[in-house]
Specification:
The complex is a heterodimer of chains A (163) and B (551). Chain A is of the alpha+beta class and 163 residues long. Chain A folds into two domains: 58 residues; 78 residues, Glutaredoxin (3-Layer(aba) Sandwich). Chain A is 44% helix and 12% strand. Chain A has a five-stranded mixed beta sheet, covered by helices on one side. In chain A, helix 1 packs antiparallel against helix 2 and helix 6 packs across helix 7. The N and C termini of chain A lie far apart (60 Å). In chain B, a hairpin with a 5-residue loop joins strand 13 and strand 14. Chain B is built from 22 helices and 15 strands. The termini of chain B are far apart. The longest helix of chain B is centred in the last third of the chain and has 19 residues. In chain B, the strands form four sheets. A five-stranded mixed beta sheet of chain B has the order 12-11-15-13-14. In chain B, strands 2-1-3-4 form a four-stranded mixed beta sheet, with helices on one face. Chain B is of the alpha/beta class and 551 residues long. In chain B, helix 7 packs parallel to helix 11, helix 10 packs across helix 12 and helix 18 crosses helix 22. The chains are: A alpha+beta (163), B alpha/beta (551). At the A-B interface, helix 2, helix 4, helix 5 and strand 5 of A face strand 11, strand 15 and helix 18 of B.
C-alpha cells in the first residue's frame, strides 16, 4: 500500500502562493491544470523559479521533468527574473516590413542588449513578441505594458534611457 | 427570470453620462475601445467625452464604448451613429469638435457618406462591430443576439441544425476550409457520451488579428455559436483556447461568460430547456504550433503542445480521448447569423464552393490598415485599392502575403483574381486565417522568405525531424543567399529540401513551412538570381557581404 497522498504546502508563507493554490484547486488539482497553474505563478511572481515548478508539480501530481518540459516549451513562461523595466519589440510580419529589424539593431547598438537579455545594470529587459496584433501601429513596441506605435530606434533608445 | 436577474445587477457602470439622462437619447457618441485604439488612450477619450458632455449640459447624449470599427489606421475613432460622422485620430482632451457636433444632431439630420472603406464591405461576422458595447449582454440581445440559440432550442432538432449549417456551405475559417457541417456531423455521430467543443482562438499568424477583434468586439456571438454547436453535436463542455498575448480579448470573454451564465445562456438548463453547456477559458502560452488541432488539445490537457499523427481525428478521439469539435473563432461567429437568417441567405453570398463572407486583416504597406469583411470572391484589387486605399506613399504594389508563415505571396498579375479557397491554392498560396500583408518595392522577397523560415524554425516543436532540422537548414541556405554567399547548387539544394520537408512533416506547420519559398521562387525567381549571380539585392534590403578576395 502506498502512503496516503498529502497535499504539499507552499514553499513559503508568501501570500501570493494562495493565488496559485486557489487556481489549482478550482481545477480539481488535476494534471490538466498545469499550464493554468504556471500562468498563475508567473502572474504572481513575475517569473517561475524552481520552488514554483516543484510546488506546482507536486500539487498536481505531475512529474518534475514534465513540469520543466512544459515551462520551457512555451515561450510565454520565463525562468529568469526580468529587469526593472521591460521593452517588448513586436516582430510580426507587418512590423518586420515596417522596420522592426532596425529597432532591434538600434537597441543592440546603443544599449548593448539582444532580445531576451537584460542590461548589465538590471534595468531594462528586451523581449520580442510574435505579433501584438497592433499591426496598424507598426512597428510597435510595449514599454512597461504601454503600447507605443510607429516608433523609430533613436526615439525608443532615448525613451528607455530616460526610464 | 433570467432577464430580471441581469437587470437587477448591472455588471458595471457603462458610461459616465448614463446617470444624468432625462428622457430619450437624442445622440450617441461611440468610442472604439478595441486593442489598437485602446493603446492610443481610447478609454481616456470615453471618460473625457462623458465629462465634457456633462459639463456642456448635454443630458440627452450617451457616450458608449464599442468594439472595433475596422479602420485601425485612423484610430482612435469616435462615431456619431445618428449622422455617421466619424472622427479620426482623436486625442484625449481635444474633444470639443465632437461635443459641438453632438449638440448639432437633430432628428432627421443629414447623414454623411461613409466612404469607400465601409461601403464596399458586407458585414455578417462584424455586424455588431462598432455598434454594441462588447461587455453588455443587453446591447447584444437588442441587436438580435441569442435569437438563434432560442430558435434552435425551441424549434429545431440537432439534425436540423447540422443540416442547416451544411446547406449554408460554411467552411472552416481557420484556413484549411473544411466543410463545417461535415465536421459537426462526424462529431455528432462519433460514439461516446462525453463530447467537447473547443474554440480555437490561438491566432498565431503574425499580421492576423481577425479573431482578436471578434473576441474584443462581440464576444457573445462566439459564445452563442459555441452553444449552438454544442447542441448540434451533443456536447456539454466547451473550451476557448485563447492567446495569452490578448489580455483585452480574454478579459472581455471572461465578462461575457459571467453575464451569459447569469442570464441563463450558459450553464445548466439554457433558456429554460434541459440543454446544458458551459465554457471555460484556457490560456495559450506563446506557442504557434498550438494552432494545430492535436497540439491545441495537448495544450488544453496541460501538456507540451506537440501534434500527433491523424487519424484518429479529434472528431473521433480528441480532448481527454473523447470526440471533440474544434472550430475557429470566425467559424463560430458565423453560426448565429446563419441560423437566424437561414442557410439560403448565407449561401447566396460568395462564389463557387466558397460561400459567405470572410474577414481580412489588412496590414503592411497599405493606407487603411485595419479589419474588413467582404463577400468571398471579391478581387484582391478591390480589397487592396478600393477598400484598403492603396499603397502607402503611393509606391508600386509588389505582392500580398496571405496565410502567414504557411502561406504564399500573390504577385501583381493576380490582382484581379477572386479571393476564394480554391483560387488561392491554385496560385500557390492559401486562405489561412485571413491576414493580408501588403508589400511594396521596399521589401525583398528573399528576405521575406527568410523571415518566415526564421519564424518556423523558432516555432517548430521539435517532435519530427523533417521540420526540426529542415527548417533550420532551409533558413541557413536562405541566409547564405541574402548574404550573397550562395551559388546555384545551394538554390537547387534549397528547392529539394523544401520538397522533402513539405512531404515528410507531421503537421501543418512543417508541411506549410516551405510554402513561402515555393511561392517566392515561382514569382520572384529573378530576385533570387540577382542575389546569387549578381550579388545584389534589388530592393536594397539585404546586406551583401563584399566578395572574398583570394589571398
Amino acid at each position: 500500500m502506498p502512503a496516503l497522498y498529502t497535499k504539499p504546502s507552499p514553499p513559503s508563507d508568501d501570500k501570493r502562493w494562495k493565488i496559485v493554490e486557489t487556481r489549482m484547486r478550482r481545477m480539481g488539482d488535476r494534471p490538466a491544470a498545469l499550464i493554468e497553474a504556471l500562468h498563475a505563478a508567473q502572474e504572481a511572481f513575475g517569473y517561475l523559479d524552481d520552488d514554483a515548478l516543484l510546488y506546482v508539480g507536486d500539487t498536481l501530481g505531475v512529474p518534475h521533468s514534465r513540469v520543466y518540459g512544459v515551462a520551457t516549451f512555451y515561450s510565454f513562461f520565463t525562468l529568469k527574473p526580468q529587469g526593472e523595466h521591460t521593452c517588448v519589440v513586436c516582430t510580426g510580419t507587418a512590423c518586420y516590413i515596417n522596420g522592426a529589424k532596425d529597432i532591434l539593431a538600434g537597441l543592440e547598438r546603443d544599449l548593448g542588449v539582444k532580445p531576451k537579455q537584460t542590461t548589465a545594470d538590471n534595468k531594462i529587459s528586451i523581449l520580442t513578441a510574435r505579433c501584438l496584433g497592433a499591426c496598424s501601429l507598426a512597428p510597435a513596441v510595449i514599454v512597461d505594458g504601454q503600447v507605443a506605435g510607429k516608433v523609430n530606434a533613436g526615439e525608443l533608445v532615448a525613451r528607455l534611457e530616460a526610464l | 427570470m433570467s432577464e430580471q436577474n441581469a437587470a437587477a445587477r448591472p455588471i458595471r457602470r457603462r458610461v459616465l453620462t448614463e446617470e444624468i439622462h432625462e428622457g430619450p437619447i437624442r445622440a450617441h457618441a461611440y468610442v472604439c475601445e478595441a486593442a489598437s485604439c485602446m493603446s492610443l488612450q481610447a478609454h481616456d477619450i470615453t471618460l473625457g467625452l462623458g465629462e465634457a458632455a456633462a459639463e456642456a449640459g448635454l443630458t440627452d447624449v450617451l457616450v458608449k464604448r464599442v468594439g472595433c470599427m475596422g479602420l485601425c489606421a485612423a484610430g482612435p475613432l469616435v462615431k456619431i451613429p445618428e449622422t455617421d460622422q466619424l472622427f479620426s485620430a482623436v486625442k484625449p482632451g481635444e474633444v470639443a469638435p465632437i461635443i459641438s457636433a453632438l449638440e448639432a444632431v437633430q432628428p432627421g439630420s443629414e447623414r454623411e457618406p461613409l466612404g469607400p472603406f465601409f461601403e464596399h464591405q458586407v458585414r455578417v461576422v462584424t455586424e455588431n462591430f462598432g455598434e454594441i458595447d462588447p461587455e453588455s449582454l443587453e446591447d447584444y440581445v437588442a441587436r438580435g443576439g441569442y435569437e438563434a440559440l432560442q430558435k434552435v432550442l425551441s424549434e429545431m432538432t440537432s439534425t436540423e441544425v447540422r443540416e442547416e449549417i451544411t446547406k449554408s456551405g460554411l467552411r472552416g475559417r481557420g484556413g484549411a476550409g473544411y466543410p463545417t457541417g461535415l465536421k459537426w456531423t462526424t462529431v455528432a455521430k462519433a460514439a461516446g457520451t462525453q463530447k467537447y467543443v473547443i474554440c480555437n482562438a490561438d491566432e498565431g499568424d503574425p499580421g492576423a488579428f481577425m479573431d482578436r477583434s471578434v473576441l474584443e468586439s462581440d464576444p457573445f456571438r462566439v459564445l452563442e455559436g459555441m452553444a449552438i454547436a454544442a447542441f448540434a453535436v451533443h456536447a456539454t463542455e466547451g473550451y476557448i483556447y485563447c492567446r495569452a498575448e490578448y489580455p483585452l480579448a480574454v478579459s472581455r470573454l471572461r465578462s461575457a461568460i459571467r453575464q451569459a451564465q447569469r442570464a441563463g445562456f450558459l450553464g445548466q438548463g439554457i433558456a429554460d430547456t434541459s440543454f446544458t453547456f458551459d465554457v471555460q477559458i484556457r490560456l495559450g502560452a506563446g506557442a504557434f504550433v498550438c494552432g494545430e488541432e492535436t497540439a491545441l488539445i495537448a495544450s488544453v490537457e496541460g501538456k507540451r503542445g506537440t501534434p500527433r499523427p491523424r487519424p484518429p481525428y479529434p472528431a473521433v478521439e480528441g480532448l481527454f480521448g473523447c470526440p471533440t469539435l474544434i472550430n475557429n473563432v470566425e467559424s463560430f461567429a458565423n453560426v448565429p447569423a446563419i441560423l437566424r437568417r437561414g442557410s439560403e441567405w448565407y449561401a447566396s453570398m460568395g462564389q463557387g464552393k466558397s460561400k459567405g463572407t470572410k474577414v481580412f486583416a489588412l496590414a503592411g504597406r497599405i493606407v487603411n490598415t485595419g479589419l474588413v469583411e467582404v463577400p468571398m470572391g471579391m478581387s484582391l484589387r478591390e480589397i487592396v485599392f478600393d477598400i484598403g486605399g492603396g499603397i502607402t506613399d503611393g509606391r508600386p504594389f509588389k505582392a500580398v502575403q496571405t496565410g502567414g508563415p504557411s502561406g504564399g505571396c500573390i504577385p501583381a498579375q493576380f490582382l484581379d483574381m477572386p479571393m476564394t479557397y480554391e483560387s488561392l491554392i491554385e496560385v500557390g498560396s492559401f486562405m489561412g486565417s485571413g491576414g493580408l500583408i501588403v508589400m511594396d518595392d521596399t521589401s525583398c522577397m528573399v528576405d521575406v522568405a527568410k523571415y518566415f523560415m526564421d519564424f518556423c524554425r523558432d516555432e517548430s516543436c521539435g517532435k519530427c525531424v523533417p521540420c526540426r532540422v529542415g527548417t533550420t537548414q532551409m533558413w541557413m541556405l536562405l541566409d547564405k543567399i541574402t548574404r550573397g554567399r550562395a551559388d546555384l547548387v545551394d538554390l537547387a539544394q534549397l528547392e529539394r529540401l523544401a520538397g522533402v520537408v513539405q512531404k515528410m512533416s507531421l503537421c501543418g506547420l512543417g508541411q506549410g513551412a516551405p510554402n513561402p519559398i515555393f511561392s517566392t521562387l515561382r514569382y520572384f525567381r529573378d530576385e533570387y538570381m540577382a542575389h546569387i549571380e549578381e550579388r545584389r539585392c534589388p530592393a536594397g534590403v539585404c546586406e551583401i557581404e563584399p566578395a572574398e578576395v583570394p589571398a
